């Protein structure tokens, strides 16, 4: 039997299951394939293509150095032809592949009718395997993140003293919502000078004659495991202490504040979630870091990230088609071009995404997807946009975050209420409104902030549906205090705004 290994573009870890299953470096051929076919699906951010391809090329070089025999294919077409040819050329009888994170890709591989046996290896890039998550979810009526997170803390013994959480509380969210008052001085993110491989990849992406999005340079992302480990260390030493307090804050010109900037590397396999969690936990004990920050961060990785992945894997394949509010408005043009909006918060977040492919969680949730939700934009168009423009976007993380958390298009499978907010929230948690042409305090008239217009319009349009969500009753009672006349004006203004998209 001749075993071959196919390493996918987001499985770049020397301990990944398929590599781990083979002892003999010399005798096991490996293939990595860069296919332009995937780039035709949507106009990806140029830096995302550079990141993935450069990281793949660096990983292939590292494997060669470690003694593996590596074939690296760059193809204009689909993966099928080069893969089958390589199987035949190397007389491979069994192809080992670690189960892809993204389900459509797994289906694509299954449909390839390969000329050899296909052996799937359980994906070990997450702490919870798919069968383990299934086991956990089978036992419950509602799949609450908080329950899952607590189970994870106990199971992996993270921030625990016997069977109790350190600090005697599971959750420090109340302490983690500081508005950005006064001058904040967040550390500058670690940046990496593109090496020869990355420069070559940048040139190649520049030459592509396909519709793409965003600025390609300056490109400052890490592209190897070694560099990703430096980003982790930099986060632990310089950012983690304040991560919690300013987790929800947004400040003009400050793209990351104290956020970790780790998702691109976790999602490519350059870092493993467990080492990231352990690094934060160790820093808590050794460096005496504030518990609200350390717990808040561990909650993101051990809780949210694992939970989102688990839910994605156990939901029906049509999860991405959900549209609970029946929203059909096309995505406004300005999502692709920040210059085309005069709403300062959107302008800030969108320009940042154009320049870097990154926005932090609250910008994604409370500016970008909040706007899409309350303006009534089609969830599928929104998901496609997020998937195209973010540096860390993949099918598995997109569906649950955009369809479930951001847009509540699944009707509450994932979130307990829609993350819908007016300008009040943005004005409190950011400095964006100070320099905006709109007034965050008014909801009708020329100067009214569109977030206010759309927010009240959204609540009124979906009043009946929202009544079924217990946690919405308080805001619906505020809606009842607005006169019929004003509500009509709000609807009219919302329609006018939509017609200008
Ligand atoms: P930090 O805020 O520092 O958090 C630390 C880590 O926790 C992140 O690196 C990430 O790995 C993990 N994490 C936190 N929240 C989530 C979550 N909800 N889902 C998954 N992981 C989480 N995350 C992506 O990895 N890719 C995406 O394409 C993506 N799109 C999103 C779209 C929307 C509408 C929303 C609301 C969230 C999205 N997220 C996505 C989740 C989260 O916003 C990003 O993981 C985070 O902003 C990445 O930046 P960071 O590494 O600085 O994160
Ligand atoms: Fe955004 Fe409205 Fe504030 Fe302007 S006033 S920044 S549009 S929330």
List the defining traits of the structure above.
501 residues, alpha/beta, 5-stranded parallel sheet, binds iron/sulfur cluster, 21 helices, binds flavin-adenine dinucleotide, two-stranded antiparallel ribbon
Report on the structure:
- This is Cryptochrome/photolyase family protein.
- InterPro entries: Crypto/Photolyase_FAD-like_sf (IPR036134), PhrB-like (IPR007357), Rossmann-like_a/b/a_fold (IPR014729), UV-DNA_repair_photolyase (IPR052551).
- It holds the Pfam family DPRP.
- The chain is α/β, with parallel strands linked by helices.
- It is built from 21 helices and 7 strands.
- The chain has helices spanning 17-20, 46-65, 80-89, 103-110, 130-138, 145-155, 196-207, 225-238, 240-243, 263-268, 273-287, 291-314, 344-356, 361-375, 379-389, 395-406, 423-429, 450-461, 463-467, 473-480, 484-499; strands at 3-6, 29-35, 69-75, 94-98, 117-121, 160-161, 164-165.
- The strands form 2 sheets. A 5-stranded parallel sheet has the order 3-2-1-4-5, sandwiched between helices.
- α2 (46-65) links the parallel β2 and β3 (69-75).
- α6 (145-155) packs across α12, α8 (225-238) runs parallel beside α11 and α11 (273-287) packs antiparallel against α12.
- It is globular.
- The structure holds flavin-adenine dinucleotide and iron/sulfur cluster (SF4).
């Amino acid at each position: 039997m001749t075993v071959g290994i196919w390493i996918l573009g987001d499985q770049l870890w020397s301990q990944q299951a398929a590599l781990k299953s083979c002892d003999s470096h010399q005798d096991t051929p490996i293939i990595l394939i860069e296919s332009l076919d995937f780039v035709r699906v949507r106009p990806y951010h140029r830096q995302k293509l550079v990141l993935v391809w450069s990281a793949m090329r660096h990983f292939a070089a590292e494997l060669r150095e470690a003694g593996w025999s590596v074939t690296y294919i760059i193809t204009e077409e689909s993966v099928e032809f080069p893969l089958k040819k390589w199987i035949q050329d190397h007389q491979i009888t069994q192809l080992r592949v670690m189960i892809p994170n993204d389900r459509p890709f797994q289906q694509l591989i299954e449909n390839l009718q390969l000329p050899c046996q296909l052996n799937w290896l359980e994906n070990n890039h997450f702490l919870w395997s798919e069968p383990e998550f299934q086991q956990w979810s089978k036992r419950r009526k509602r799949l609450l993140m908080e329950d899952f997170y607590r189970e994870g803390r106990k199971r992996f013994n993270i921030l625990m003293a016997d069977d109790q959480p350190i600090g005697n509380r599971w959750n420090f969210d109340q302490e983690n919502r500081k508005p950005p008052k006064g001058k904040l001085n967040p550390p500058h993110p670690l940046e990496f000078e593109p090496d020869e491989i990355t420069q070559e990849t940048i040139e190649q992406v520049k030459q592509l004659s396909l519709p793409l999005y965003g600025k390609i340079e300056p490109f400052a992302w890490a592209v190897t495991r070694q560099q990703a480990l430096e980003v982790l260390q930099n986060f632990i030493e310089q950012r983690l202490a304040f991560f919690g307090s300013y987790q929800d804050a947004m400040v003009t010109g400050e793209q990351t504040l104290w956020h970790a900037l780790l998702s691109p590397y976790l999602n490519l396999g350059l870092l493993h979630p467990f080492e990231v969690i352990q690094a934060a936990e160790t820093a808590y004990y050794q460096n005496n870091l504030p518990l609200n920050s350390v717990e808040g961060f561990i909650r993101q990785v051990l809780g949210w990230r694992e939970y989102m992945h688990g839910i994605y894997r156990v939901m029906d394949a049509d999860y991405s088609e959900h549209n609970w509010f029946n929203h059909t408005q096309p995505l406004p043009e300005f999502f692709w071009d920040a210059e085309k909006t005069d709403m300062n918060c959107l302008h800030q977040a969108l320009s940042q995404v154009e320049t870097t492919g990154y926005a932090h969680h609250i910008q994604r949730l409370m500016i970008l997807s909040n706007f899409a939700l309350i303006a009534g934009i089609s969830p599928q168009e929104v998901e496609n946009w997020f998937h195209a423009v973010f540096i860390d976007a993949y099918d598995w993380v997109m569906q649950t975050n955009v369809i479930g958390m951001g847009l509540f298009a699944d009707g509450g499978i994932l979130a307990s209420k829609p993350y819908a907010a007016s300008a009040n929230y943005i004005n409190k948690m950011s400095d964006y409104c100070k320099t905006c042409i709109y007034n965050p305090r008014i909801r009708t008239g020329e100067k009214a902030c569109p977030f206010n217009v759309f927010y009240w319009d959204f609540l009124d349009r979906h009043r009946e549906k929202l009544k079924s969500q217990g946690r919405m009753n308080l805001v619906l009672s505020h809606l009842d205090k607005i006169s019929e006349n004003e509500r009509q004006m709000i609807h009219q203004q919302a329609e006018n705004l939509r017609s200008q998209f």
